[in-house]
């Protein structure tokens, strides 16, 4: 016969599990959010890895409330954090964080890892990073953990009702095809053939994400990779964007959008929503002052030409007013730029996000949820 103490413990555990299950079922609860990709959306997974691709030291995070480096490649919040604000949710935790447990699992998880690309050989110079194939394996692992927490049926419902963000592609150009002159991939493929190869591989990744239950997926295209301070430092005399890298982005992005249309036609719905990151950034780069920025060529944190050489560290040149810079470091936007980017996610026309913006997605999905309840 069970002791009174054991009965109390068992009752507490049951009540705790019931509370988690009710939270998962709550119609007013914010939907779960899952993030995959590279340093543009990594919020700290690489903190737990032995790799050079980390942002867990000052001055990263200088404008967070506690001025602490969190692993985000920003002075403050990144795009997933700001999307979470619009979802009415707390920021999702990195999957490798020991804090991701219990009811924190219901918020979602961030699987992104700085340095990765569509291809597994992208980012090999960073050694220990979570390539996209492994990110998807972690997503499967997460779902098993979630099923143990709230049951298989509720776990499936939570995942299918979630919002997903995936950001890949930029590193496949900057840290692979164009990493060094006559790189292995550039000897293997012409640029058009390389773009075709990338998209054929990306199609498999997106299909796998669908098979794992994702039903609303924001897919970010490649930004203006020829205009980031790191590339200006190497290739530009006057701050003009590198034409070859820009050509790669201009070739890739329309074909990515066409791929997403094909996938949506195959699956019968608007599962995949394409975000034209180059078009969004072009607004800032073409006329930074119109958006309240002083410069779109200089990084806030760095050294050398355009402050775009080397890493952002405590000995780097650091700007005083982060809000006046589009770029925080050699590759990544400031929090203020990220907020303007997410503004276009939320309310942009099909020129920026297609087939519909995120506000429309959220409104449609809320209406569907209300009809089911």
UniProtKB/TrEMBL annotation:
Presence of the UniProt keyword Lipid metabolism in the record: yes
One of the Pfam families matching this protein, by short name: Lipase_GDSL
The keyword Signal belongs to this UniProt entry's keyword annotation: yes
Domain of life: Eukaryota
Keywords per UniProt: Hydrolase, Lipid degradation, Lipid metabolism, Signal
Signal sequence interval, chain numbering: 1-29
InterPro entries: GDSL, GDSL_Est/Lipase, SGNH_hydro_sf, SGNH_plant_lipase-like
One of the record's GO molecular function terms: hydrolase activity, acting on ester bonds
GO BP, sorted A to Z: lipid catabolic process
Family the entry assigns: Belongs to the 'GDSL' lipolytic enzyme family.
Protein name: GDSL esterase/lipase
Native source species: Miscanthus lutarioriparius
High-level lineage: Eukaryota, Viridiplantae, Streptophyta, Embryophyta, Tracheophyta
């Amino acid at each position: 016969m069970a002791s009174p103490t054991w009965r109390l413990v068992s009752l507490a555990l049951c009540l705790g599990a019931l509370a988690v299950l009710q939270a998962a079922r709550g119609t007013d609860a914010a939907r779960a959010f899952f993030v995959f990709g590279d340093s543009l959306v990594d919020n700290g997974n690489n903190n737990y890895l032995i790799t050079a691709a980390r942002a867990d030291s000052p001055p990263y995070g200088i404008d967070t409330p506690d001025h602490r480096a969190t692993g985000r490649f920003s002075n403050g919040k990144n795009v997933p954090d700001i999307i979470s604000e619009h979802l009415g949710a707390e920021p999702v935790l990195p999957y490798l964080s020991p804090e991701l447990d219990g009811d924190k699992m219901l918020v979602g998880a961030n699987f992104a890892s700085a340095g990765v690309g569509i291809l597994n050989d992208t980012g090999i110079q960073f050694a220990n990073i979570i390539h996209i194939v492994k990110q998807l394996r972690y997503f499967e692992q997460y779902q098993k953990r979630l099923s143990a927490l709230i049951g298989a049926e509720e776990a499936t419902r939570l995942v299918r009702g979630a919002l997903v963000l995936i950001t890949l592609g930029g590193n496949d150009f900057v840290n692979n095809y164009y990493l060094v002159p006559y790189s292995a991939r550039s000897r293997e493929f012409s640029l058009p053939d390389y773009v075709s190869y990338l998209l054929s591989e990306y199609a498999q990744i997106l299909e796998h994400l669908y098979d794992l239950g994702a039903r609303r997926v924001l897919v970010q295209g490649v930004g203006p990779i020829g205009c980031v301070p790191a590339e200006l430092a190497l290739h530009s005399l006057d701050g003009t964007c590198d034409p070859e890298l820009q050509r790669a982005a201009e070739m890739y992005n329309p074909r990515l959008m066409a791929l997403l249309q094909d996938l949506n036609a195959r699956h019968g719905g608007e599962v995949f929503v394409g975000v034209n990151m180059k078009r969004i950034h072009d607004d800032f780069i073409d006329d930074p002052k119109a958006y309240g920025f002083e410069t779109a060529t200089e990084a806030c944190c760095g050294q050398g030409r355009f402050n775009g050489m080397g890493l952002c560290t405590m000995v780097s040149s650091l700007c005083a007013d982060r809000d006046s810079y589009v770029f925080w470091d050699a590759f990544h936007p400031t929090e203020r730029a990220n907020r303007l980017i997410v503004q276009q996610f939320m309310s942009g026309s099909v020129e920026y996000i297609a087939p519909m913006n995120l506000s429309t997605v959220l409104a449609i999905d809320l209406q569907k949820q209300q009809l089911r309840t």
